[in-house]
Write a structure and sequence with these properties.
CATH superfamily of the largest domain: Periplasmic binding protein-like II
Protein name: Transporter substrate-binding domain-containing protein
Helix content: 25-40%
Keywords: Signal
CATH topology of the largest domain: D-Maltodextrin-Binding Protein, domain 2
Order of helices and strands: HEHEHEEEHEHEHEHEEHH
Number of helices: 9
Number of domains: 2
Length: 264
């Protein structure tokens, strides 16, 4: 009888899910256009090396024992693809999306946990020939002027609602800065992990013709959003990834950005 009971318990234990098992592969969606040094290369194929943001996501997934699968999509399709379960995760920084199948990290009170995200700066580049003081109040300066942003970024709608005239027709950094140089827009806004992250690339391509205003247009938080179904089936790993991002993400990201700054 004891032998039979032991056999039943053994079979039950083998059939039960192992709470410590590695989570399902995390399909991480990110833009299919280059945004140096965050995402390198354009198109569906991942570049080698892929960019600082992709390497950060690899480290984050590995911290919870989750394989990472990269999926490159047009920026405008990322949130829809996340909601529909085409991808499992993507970064997002503007406000809170209501309803749907998208999950944020939450604190004990059920509010979005800002301690489990990364600080993000929306900086603005202008023409040096406009003789704008670098320490000008950026928000006031842009009133009544045309502001360029990357096509498909969610903060385009936010800036329009705030009263800015927004041009989001160009898909990459170089095209936007070229529009700025030619006078088609009066400023180019982009969200970065560090205020000076693009300074080197802009200087290398445009010399001193384009400069960055010192005051960011906005300072916010970027979170890793997850698909609800993925979260519910990998809850322990998902919470661990968010916690890792809050505790180690900013310092790891800074180190990765320095690495790419030195890359040829």
């Amino acid at each position: 009888m004891r032998s039979l009971l032991a056999s039943i318990l053994t079979v039950a234990a083998l059939a039960a899910p192992d709470a410590r098992a590695a989570c399902a592969p995390l399909r991480f969606g990110y833009p299919d256009q280059a945004v140096e040094p965050y995402y390198r290369g354009s198109g569906r194929q991942e570049a080698d090396p892929p960019g600082a943001s992709v390497e950060l996501m690899r480290a984050l997934a590995a911290s919870a024992g989750c394989p990472l699968e990269s999926v490159r999509l047009p920026a405008a399709r990322l949130l829809l693809s996340l909601n529909n379960g085409v991808i499992d995760a993507t970064p997002f920084s503007i406000g809170e999306l209501q309803g749907g199948n998208i999950v944020y990290p939450r604190d004990k009170k059920g509010k979005i946990d800002r301690n489990r995200g990364l600080t993000l700066y929306t900086v603005v580049f202008v023409r040096a020939s406009d003789n704008v003081g670098r320490d000008v109040d950026t928000a006031s300066y842009l009133r009544g002027r045309r502001l360029g942003v990357l096509h498909g970024v969610p903060y385009a709608a936010t800036f329009r609602q705030a009263g800015y005239e927004v041009d989001d027709g160009a898909r990459d950094v170089h095209s936007n800065v070229e529009k700025l140089r030619l006078g088609r827009i009066d400023g180019f806004a982009i969200s970065l992990a560090g205020r000076a992250d693009l300074d080197g690339e802009i200087a290398a391509s445009f010399g001193g013709a384009i400069v960055r205003l010192e005051q960011p247009l906005r300072v916010g938080t970027i979170w890793l959003l997850l698909n609800k179904d993925y979260y519910e089936h990998n809850r322990e790993a998902a919470e661990a990834m968010w916690t890792w991002l809050g505790e180690h993400g900013q310092s790891r990201f800074t180190a990765l950005l320095k690495k790419y700054d030195k890359a040829p």
